[in-house]
Each structure stands twice: as C-alpha cells, then as structure tokens.
Amino acid sequence: MDDDTLIAALSCGTSLALLLILINLMHDAAIDDLRDRLFAIRDRMFLYAYDHDLLDRPAHRELRSLMNGAIRFAHQASVVRVLSFALASRIAGRTETQNRRHAKLIAAIHSLPSAHRDYFSAAHEEFIEVMALHIIRNFTPLWPVYIVTKVAYKALDLADRLDGLRNSLRAKLIALLPIEAIEDEAARAI
After folding, report:
1. DSSP sequence for 51-68
2. From CA 50, how far away is CA 142, in angstroms rounded?
3. Looking at residue 180, what is its pLDDT?
4. What whole-number distance in Å separates Cα of residue 104 and Cα of residue 120?
5. Partner of 73 at 20 to 30 A CA spacing, among 58, 79, 134, 168?
6. Cβ-based neighbours of 1, under 8 Å, separated by 6 or more
C-alpha cells in the first residue's frame, strides 16, 4: 500500500471515529435536554399543586408518576422502542391496561375544578409534546418532520404576534383620533 492510500485510510478512519464521538455526545446532550425539560414541567406542576393544596389529588399523583417514569427512562426514548413497545403491547393484549391507565389519568384531571383542570391538562399536553419532539429530533429520517414542525410553530407564533401588534396599533390609533369629533362632522355633513 502506498503512502497516499494509507493517509487516506487513516484520515477516513479518524473522521469516522470523530463523527461517532460527536453523535454520542449529541445523543447524551439530547437526553440531558429532555430530562431538564421534564424536570421543569414536573417542578412547575408540583409548585402549582402545593400552592393550591392539590398534592394528594389523583391527577397530581398520576401525572407526577408518569413524568417520573419518563425522566427515569429518558435514555430509552426512541422511535424504535416506542414502536416496538406498541407492537409488543398489542400482540400481548396489554393495550387495554394502557388505555385504562390513560383513561384513569384523564378522568383524574377532569375531576378537578376547571381552573386546576386547565393547568393539569396543559402540563400533560406539554409533557406529550416534549416527549414527541425528543423522539422526532433523535430519529434522523424524521428530521424533515421536525424542521417543518418548527417552521410551522414559528409561523403561527409570528402570525399571533402580528395580530397582537395590529390590535395594539389599532387601539393606539383610536385613542389618538378624536372619533367623536369625526362622527359629529360626518353627521353634520349628511
């Protein structure tokens, strides 16, 4: 083997090793990010439950248990595992148990007074969104879905901001213009 071939092979091998190290570091960072987000949701929910004396309510216990499990097993969250789990559960006939557990959580949330129900429903939705985005972001073939989702959220956020700005400007314009004088003038002209 000549020197150029040897150098090319070593360069490719080194590049591949560095790429694998980078992928591993990115995976670890993604898991840390997921856990941080789940901890934040769980901590906000705990403080809310503590402030409103809801710590012993089934909705808080069930949702906290769900989040604790997700935090504990965050390193195992992947598309392949989710699909394998769903398929194995369906084959083993355990979907009824999962449906009952989810129905129990939803019933517990709906048993709360409306203000608390809205908060716990929002926390549950945020939990599902964080988990889904983590799974999509960490499965390379789904990256286009993630990018489209991010662009759509940004577009919707921008549209909401523009609506807010338009309403704010409209309110300021109405406050600046002497509407009564304009209406009186228009009435006299008729």
Report:
1. HTT-TTSHHHHHHHHHHH
2. 39
3. 56
4. 14
5. 58
6. 9
- The token pair that represents 184 in the structure block: 């009186």
53-70-122 Cα angle (round to 5):
50
Do 77 and 135 meet the contact criterion of CB atoms below 8 Å apart? yes
pLDDT tens string 117-148? 999 999 999 998 888 888 877 776 766 777 77
Q: Confidence class of residue 154 from pLDDT cuts 50, 70 and 90?
A: confident
Query: How far is Cα 135 from Cα 130, in angstroms, rounded to an integer?
Result: 9
- Provide the pLDDT for residue 173: 61
Burial of 56 (0-12, 13-18, 19+ CB in 10 A): exposed
**How many residues appear in the chain?**
190
Which sign does the torsion angle of CA 59, 60, 61, 62 carry? positive
C-alpha to C-alpha distance for 129 and 40, rounded to whole angstroms: 14
Distance CA 50, CA 56 (A): 9
CA distance linking residue 116 with residue 113, whole number of Å: 6
- In the DSSP assignment, the letter for residue 1 is -
Query: How far is 95 from 87, CA to CA, in rounded Å?
Result: 10
The answer to whether 70 touches 127, Cβ cutoff 8 Å, is yes
Contact predicate 66/101, CB 8 Å: no
Q: Could you tell me which of 137, 123, 101, 125 has the C-alpha nearest to residue 47?
A: 123
